[in-house]
Amino acid sequence: LKVAVLGLGYIGLPTAAVIARTGARVLGVDVSADVVETVNSGRVHIEEVDLDGLVSGVVTRGALRASTIIEQADIFVIAVPTPFDADHAPDIGYVLQAATTVAAALKPGDTVILESTSPVGTTEKVRDLLAQLRPDLKVPGRTGDQADIAIAYCPERVLPGRILVELIDNDRVIGGITPRCARKALAFYRRFVRGACVTTTARTAEMTKLTENAFRDVNIAFANELSLVADTVGVDVWDVIRLANRHPRVNILNPGPGVGGHCIAVDPWFLVSAAPDRTPLIRTAREVNDGKTDHVIAEAAKLIEVTSGPVACLGLAFKANIDDFRESPALRVTDALAARFGERIRVVEPHIASLPEPLSRSGATLIDIDTAIETCPVMIVLVDHDVFRSVPLEERADKRVLDTRGIWSDQPSPSSRTSLRLAS
Ligand code: SAJ
Q1: Does residue 319 have an active-site annotation?
Q2: Are residues 114 and 163 in the same domain?
């Protein structure tokens, strides 16, 4: 079996490596020559638990190879980004570009699978594009005839930091353009997925993926809104949530500095954009979560104004123990504080060697956690990396702290534990 995976990013590269481990010959296709070269030398350009060892193993065995150029294959897996534009409307340009690339290599009997998070109807658009580019091939779902190729939508659902485990253990939803397409894709996923593989239509699978991430966004928004209420009434929100969650039917998520990553901060907009007049809840959740970031910026600025000396901003990643900064609220907060307070801002982010733009030009500097403990009287916790979580009380007891993640529950007054209450 030969498989081509288009897009060697956070999803495509681990997927390509896992498929290669099953004995298939895998070609990873990426538009970036740097990424292709890195993978071909057995290295990785992203940080993900155990991915480096897996990639180096399958590349050494010759099971995984990367190229900027497509080749013939039996299965084509598209795992490219689907961003949104300034009006929050989804942009499926990369998906259509990848489908155009696939079209050149397609032959009868092949299967095309879209994994990118996509607005409802995208897989049908891919089908229409392939039909247009390859009039010699019968596409599925257009006529009563048997199609030459199969087209399906199978969203990834893996959690960064646990990708290799979840790629195998999670259940998969497989939506075919026709039931026959779904069955062909199912046979492929059964090669490496240990979780249940459930088939449905492409449109249902597309909406299911968006629904999962909107569910999480709405629930995080609830926690973030509670954190504002708790601050207003002077109660510790993490105490409230811990106690409320003792109820057998209550399970509140954690408040934080906002929601980041390329999924949860983006996908709900695809549902809103599909039915703008019918999605006040999903839209408001997005606004609450983005608003929480603005709120943290304002509260941090107040703290910095009433203190002196260097300020340590702990973390830039969008969540704990990863090196991914996409849509990161921690980065947004730090950028805003650095633009205003410049040289007072010290950034601690163990996953990078230099500060990204525009932070690097703001006067802010990158330091390690030991230096932060030694030199910074003010600390703003933005990411719950394990290395921050494990700083013992005696090393921070005398600091002014704004803890947006609730990781230092023993932080004494007058330092504030919540993201919102300020040290008096
Ligand atoms: N967050 C909170 N409070 C919480 C949980 C998360 O503030 O209680 C924040 C995180 O700090 C982060 C953001 O939300 O900034 C998103 O983090 P996450 O861990 O919830 O999710 P992602 O973006 O890493 O991965 C999600 C997952 N989706 C769901 O859990 C429904 C994953 O399974 C998907 O595969 C992934 O999106 C994706 O690719 O769509």
Answers
A1: no
A2: yes
pLDDT one-digit tens code per residue, 145-164:
789 999 999 999 999 889 99
Domain range enclosing 55: 2-202
Count of structural domains, the chain: 2
ipTM above 0.85 for this complex: yes
In a domain? residue 88: yes
Which of 202, 224, 250 is where one domain is finished?
202
Give the number of the atom of ligand 1 that is nearest the alpha carbon of residue 10.
39
Are 397 and 275 part of one and the same domain?
A: yes
The answer, yes or no, to whether any atom of ligand 1 lies below 6 A from the CB of 172, is no
Position 416 pLDDT exceeds 80: no
Q: 148 and 272 share a domain? A: no
pLDDT of residue 424: 37
Instruction: Single out the catalytic residue among 154, 181, 184, 209.
Output: 209
331: in domain: yes
* 126 and 253 part of one domain: no
181, 263, 313, 376: the active-site residue: 263
Assess whether the C-beta atom of 235 lies below 6 angstroms from ligand 1. Answer: no
Closest atom of ligand 1 to CA, residue 267: 40
Q: Over the stretch 47-73, which tens digit does the pLDDT of each residue have? A: 899 999 999 999 999 999 999 999 999
DSSP 3-state percent helix, strand, coil across the chain (nearest 5): 40, 15, 45
Angle at 404 between CA 384 and CA 10, to 5 degrees: 45
| pLDDT value of residue 146 | 87
For the stretch 97-114, pLDDT in tens is 999 999 999 999 999 999
Q: Does 8 lie in the same domain as 86? A: yes
Distance 76 CA to ligand 1 centre (A): 27
Answer yes or no: 184 catalytic: no
| CA separation, residue 96 to residues 99, 100, 116 (Å) | 5, 6, 11
Most informative mutation of 80, 158, 208, 259 for ligand 1 (most atoms within 8 A of CB): 259
Report which DSSP code applies to 199: E
Contacts of 385 (CB under 8 A, 6+ apart): 314, 315, 317, 320, 321, 350
